[in-house]
Amino acid sequence: MRIVFCGVGAIGSTASVLCRNLDATLAFIDFDRVESKNLLAQAYVKPSVGKNKAEALKLQLLNLHGVKAEAFGVRLTRDNVEALCSGADLLVDCFDNRESRQVLSDYARRASKPLVHGALAGDGSFGLVRWDERFFPDAEDQAGQATCEGGAHLPLIGLLGGSLARIIQDFVKHGVRRDVMVNLTSVTPTMDT
Predict the structure, then answer these.
(1) What separation in angstroms does the CA of 77 have from each of 88, 115, 147, 177, 186?
(2) Which residues of the chain have pLDDT under 70?
(3) How many whole angstroms separate alpha carbon 77 and alpha carbon 80?
(4) Stretch (H or E) spanning 165
(5) Which residues contact 93 (CB under 8 A, 6 or more apart)?
(6) What's the rounded Cα separation, in Å, for the pair 113 and 107?
(7) Domain 2-192 in CATH: superfamily?
(8) Which value, to the nearest 10 degrees, does the dihedral of the CA atoms of residues 122, 125, 128, 133 take?
(9) pLDDT tens digits along 108-147
(10) pLDDT for 91-109, tens place per residue?
(11) Are the CB atoms for 24 and 30 separated by under 8 Å?
């Protein structure tokens, strides 16, 4: 089993760490670098500052017993999506922008790859985990809008990352595809298939 996490910021890094017990290779795609401001809301440590996020997460997880991880420190585009994702048994979208989500969704549909999305509202009011056949990416309120800076939404990021990890585990172990919506007062399953 090979699970490819696309975008390993707050949601992607949190969910990835919680999937470390799966009998799977975890692959990470992200072009961005770890900044000190990321340490509050993302699963990185101080020695990771300045490193590529995908590579830093891989190195952190390889310190744990039995984890298999790969890193691709590039931006996912229409030109490289097939090369990066063709070996995936499951694609996980944790991007923070519509364009990247759409590239991944278009590829997954063409290639008949299962794809699950994890998304957080820009204002931190709710998050959702939804399978691609029921997901429609919307645009950010502003290009480059930060949603997970400074740890302001950390409890919701934890709930969302944990919910995403559980949904990944249920898919890997049982083939179940559930959707979930979370806010700070509830975690609500919305669909099982």
Answers:
(1) 16, 16, 22, 26, 35
(2) 140-152, 186-193
(3) 5
(4) helix 154-174
(5) 6, 7, 100, 101, 104, 105, 115, 116, 117, 118
(6) 8
(7) NAD(P)-binding Rossmann-like Domain (3.40.50.720)
(8) -60
(9) 999 999 999 999 887 788 899 999 999 988 776 665 555 5
(10) 999 999 999 999 999 999 9
(11) no
List of long-range contacts for 36-40, beta carbons under 8 Å, 24+ apart: 37/149, 37/150, 38/9, 38/10, 40/150, 40/151, 40/154
Does residue 174 contact residue 28 with C-beta atoms inside 8 Å? no
Q: Are 191 and 184 spatial neighbours (Cβ–Cβ below 8 Å)?
A: no
- Please name the amino acid found at residue 138: D
Report d(CA 45, CA 113) in Å as an integer. 32
SS3 96: coil
Q: Greatest CA separation found in the chain?
A: 42
What type of residue sits at position 85?
C
The residue to which tokens 């083939």 are assigned: 175
d(Cα 13, Cα 171) in Å, to the nearest integer? 19
- Can you give the pTM of this predicted structure? 0.92
> Amino acid identity, residue 62?
L
Q: What tokens were used for 9?
A: 């910021």
The amino acid that residue 143 corresponds to is A
The full set of domain ranges for the chain reads 2-192
